[in-house]
Amino acid sequence: MADNSQKMSYQAGEAKGQAQEKASGMMDKANNAAQSAKETMQDAGQNMQAKAQGAADAKKMADNSQKMSYHAGEAKGQAQEKASGMMDKANNAAQSAKETMQDAGQNMQAKAQGAADAVKNATGMNK
After folding, report:
1. Centroid of chain to Cα 51
2. Residue ranges under compositional bias (Polar residues) (predicted)?
3. pTM exceeds 0.70
């Protein structure tokens, strides 16, 4: 009987450890994916800003026509606004993914702990 109880306790601990390891791996993957998405969006934003700066530089090279000046400034403003919006969305998505994965990991850990406690209660080891 003691051998069976020890075996069940060992298996419960092993299951808890595996669940925690899996949760940790999922958190790492989610954080890596979120970081990658953030970096990709930052690169895209920087690229757009560089293009906007290029438009501003082209404006300087153009003649003093008011119409050309107006349109170049307008394009730069729109590009910067779009880049800023994309960065906000990327940061929000990354944060949301991180929080979702943290919640999932905590859920898995709680379930594993519940399973371990249930086995301990069933075997009388939780007294």
Report:
1. 28
2. 32-47, 92-110
3. no
